[in-house]
Amino acid sequence: MTGIRVSSDALYAFVVFADHLNLTRAAEALAISQPSLHSKIATLARELGMPLYQRTGNRLRLTPGGERVAQFARDHQNRLDLFLKDLHGVPADQPLVTAAGHTAYLYLLGPTIRRMLAERPGSIRPLHTNRTQMQAAVRTGRAQLGVFSLHVLPTDLVATPIAAYSQMLLMPKNHRLARRRTLRLRDLAGSDLIVPPPARPHRINLERALIDADVPWTIAVEAEGLPMTLDFAALGVGLAVVAGCVTPAPGLVTRPVTDLPRVIFHAIHRPGALEDPRVAGLLTAIRDGIPVTARPKAGGTTRRET
């Protein structure tokens, strides 16, 4: 016994704060005053002997210890909710939360989510995130399963490859390059490209590949997210490099760029998450919904906590 006594009320308050990372909004969600919430978190930090969050510029961020506490607190709250429901005879039907971005939802997860919601309304709750937000949501227990194309795999989560697609050049069907069945980076020389903002992984990797291939190009426009990229491509603003799962809009076509690496999508979850048959069933359903031609070869790597 450590002798430390932690309030369940304080843990729940910290879970809500971790979801918002904003004292005002979290206090509103809890229907308490901001000073009261601040006091609960300060008391919890003091009892645990560690800071739980810190300010970085204008934003609040959880410390590594805070992330672990949020993870524990969420698990604790989920177990308590399930126990109370079982105690009072209410089915344990909490929705599973998925965390993913535009591409995964539009082209990988959509059919599975649609079918599962038709079978059991409310059984899935999608959470739209970027890569960093997805990992944080899974790490803290806010989401049970994340799906994203990752360039660096987390060491504290399980990452299983579920789909692999060639990178494709998206362009008008009457573009000169559309006459080709396949392309190489050098064929893009002089092109106006629709790219993500600086510091986005896809932008960094594409720029590096073009530089290494000594291919000159210009920025047509910087687009935030796949839908905006597709809209600009449909308007004829420029060409775009997208994953092979993307379905071109009418008037557009895609061609594989053979010297770009394939895009690998991973399913991300916490160690032990598949012990929950609902999570295991969701992952199986997602994998079964991937076209056979896009499934990674047997023996694909799975990264676990080290």
TrEMBL record:
It comes from the Bacteria. This is DNA-binding transcriptional LysR family regulator. PROSITE patterns: HTH_LYSR. GO terms for cellular component: protein-DNA complex. Gene3D superfamilies: 3.40.190.290, Winged helix-like DNA-binding domain superfamily/Winged helix DNA-binding domain. Residues 6-63 form the HTH lysR-type domain. InterPro entries: LysR_HTH_N, LysR_subst-bd, WH-like_DNA-bd_sf, WH_DNA-bd_sf. Belongs to the LysR transcriptional regulatory family. GO terms for molecular function: DNA binding; DNA-binding transcription factor activity. It holds the Pfam family LysR_substrate. Keywords: DNA-binding, Transcription, Transcription regulation.
